[in-house]
Fold:
Amino acid sequence: MQGSAVDYGNWFILVAGGFWLGSLTAGKVSTKVGTDRMITLGNYISAIGSLLMLGLFIAGSPSYLSLFLPMALFTYGRGLSQPNAQASAISSTSGAKATATGMLGFLQLLINSLMAQLTPLLMKMGLVVLPLVLMSMVLLATYCYYRGVKATMGLLRQAQSRY
Structure:
């Protein structure tokens, strides 16, 4: 894509704005809709953003619009789901909230640093790899979320069977 670093930075405002708007929406809506539904909705919207980007890349030559508009939708979805996922992870334990917070932060930084190292290698394969990586991250988030829900339900059943 032709343009300068300034052009790229200006377009990137859409990505940050998407996350900000998603987080703002989550703050207003989560108490009414519920944490689980917000996480699921955010994952769906992020998946739509990555699929839209893939479709636009396949349909024509990549442009700032075909990169940053779907990315803004992707980060809007992350803004919906991530605060709710963090709240759920932290509230998952009654006695070790600091440990849960630290572990969540560590896992986020670990996955992000791994992806930062892999991205340049993957981008050498072509720009189409970017939306595929985004979709794989949505799938990973969804998988982890449902594994957590399943584990929590199992613990609740065990606790209920004791009484």
The chain has one domain: 5-162. The mean pLDDT is 88. DSSP finds five helices and no strands in the chain. The domain at 5-162 is CATH 1.20.1250 (Growth Hormone; Chain: A;).
